[in-house]
Amino acid sequence: MADGKTFKKPRRPYEKERLDVELKLVGEYGPRCKELLRVQYFPIRIRNNACNLLTFDKKNPRRIFEGEALLRRMFCYNLLDEIQNKLDYVLALTVENFLECRL
């Protein structure tokens, strides 16, 4: 996983709405440009993994094993509480949650 992509360049680099949102996030949480791109890409990857796992049956060993690993990782990052132990909570995570964790 260390050799994979860590961020994704925006499709439209000078889109006003996106730049306004990024400026607000930079002002509130203080990440640098490439760091903000990384933080924006991370929840997308996590949500995609959770969506793929939710397509499997609840008794599927892959869903159980990888789902528990994903939830454990979210607990370690302090993004989820112990009572939020379902993959549905992972889908609700936003960029702000990851930036709050960073502070």
UniProtKB/TrEMBL annotation:
<dbReference type="Pfam" id="PF00163">
    <property type="entry name" value="Ribosomal_S4"/>
</dbReference>
<dbReference type="GO" id="GO:0019843">
    <property type="term" value="F:rRNA binding"/>
</dbReference>
<dbReference type="GO" id="GO:0003735">
    <property type="term" value="F:structural constituent of ribosome"/>
</dbReference>
<dbReference type="InterPro" id="IPR001912">
    <property type="entry name" value="Ribosomal_uS4_N"/>
</dbReference>
<keyword id="KW-0699">rRNA-binding</keyword>
<keyword id="KW-0694">RNA-binding</keyword>
<keyword id="KW-0687">Ribonucleoprotein</keyword>
<dbReference type="InterPro" id="IPR022801">
    <property type="entry name" value="Ribosomal_uS4"/>
</dbReference>
<dbReference type="GO" id="GO:0022627">
    <property type="term" value="C:cytosolic small ribosomal subunit"/>
</dbReference>
<feature type="domain" description="Small ribosomal subunit protein uS4 N-terminal">
    <location>
        <begin position="4"/>
        <end position="100"/>
    </location>
</feature>
<comment type="similarity">
    <text>Belongs to the universal ribosomal protein uS4 family.</text>
</comment>
<protein>
    <recommendedName>
        <fullName>Small ribosomal subunit protein uS4 N-terminal domain-containing protein</fullName>
    </recommendedName>
</protein>
<dbReference type="GO" id="GO:0042274">
    <property type="term" value="P:ribosomal small subunit biogenesis"/>
</dbReference>
